[in-house]
Amino acid sequence: MKKIIVVGSGILGASAAYHLSRSDAEVTLIDAIHPGRATDAAAGIICPWLSQRRNQAWYRLAKAGARYYAELTEQLHAEGEKHTGYARVGALSLHTDPVKIEQMRERAEKRREDAPEIGEIQVLGESQVRELFPLLNEGYLAVRVSGAARVDGRALRDAMVSAARRNGAKVIEGEAALNVAEGRVTGVQVNGERLDADEVVLCAGAWSGELLRPLGLDFQVTYQKGQILHLGMRGQPDSGAWPVVIPPTDQYLLAFDDAKMVVGATHENGVELADVRVTAGGMHEVLEKGLALAPGLADGELEEVRVGFRPFTPGFLPVIGRVPGWEGLITANGLGASGLTMGPFLGSQLAKLALGLETNLPLEDYAVEKALGEK
């Protein structure tokens, strides 16, 4: 029986462990539970089709990730995980300029040709927009995409870890260090115990560079701090059916069940991984932009602020594959702000790599070498 260790239980590692647990492999999932894990704070907008990014390799991965949700959630439900945090509620991509709205509509129509999961595409007037999301300011038009979704990253991660446990996976909390011998990663050291493995799958996000440094590798993963505000909105009992809101700025707005609203987020560079503080400046930025977008949020009750570090690899393009020069070591990283869109699908591909199966991706486009510098 093949022994496989997954290091990191964010959305990516949880997915890898879950998919591996459905095989005959012996699976161990290890996580240090660092404050600031990206999955704990991520907003969860699943709508890559309206993106203006021109990198086709990125879009191919994001599109595959969005498409994979239907299969994954159906599978989890069949295995008894009823609360995945996923809901197909549609999205409103906002703008005040009718020309920009038309350009968005054309882009969505074109992309629907090979992504029918986009669903229905509509251009909505101001009154229609505010009917669907009553807290919004006046003056916005929108392109509505019915196939878009939102996901609670913590809930989905927990569902996959729960299913993996039920399938026999072992879950350990602790700081892992890689064990090596003659050009091979042989397992990990965690909590004073040596665990051997045929394959180690590294999904440690912003902390991956530290884990790979003892191997003489300069793994170029950077990170961006995000502060995300959670509000309670009394008197909005049907909020769980409201669409995701994507404004023309770098902010966003999501509504969840029980009148929960998520407003985000800051994009802070040049910070330390230890800096998980909620700052006055960060909250001012989020609230200023959020209230300009949706004045109806002003009556919201502050419930929580989450802080997470989005990991990026060079060119803002994720990497996935075997780590050059080291047998038995596989990794993926650099999902950035699209972690919840791409993570479950990429985790399934990591599982295939570890099991020696063919992946559904042209891995050369996402080669790990692209994130390795000269040591």
Automatic annotation (TrEMBL):
Keyword set, alphabetical order: Oxidoreductase
Domain of life: Bacteria
Enzyme class: oxidoreductase
E.C. no: 1.-.-.-
The keyword Oxidoreductase is annotated on this UniProt entry: yes
Protein name from the UniProt record: FAD-dependent oxidoreductase
Taxonomic source organism: Saccharibacillus sacchari
Source taxonomy: Bacteria, Bacillati, Bacillota, Bacilli, Bacillales
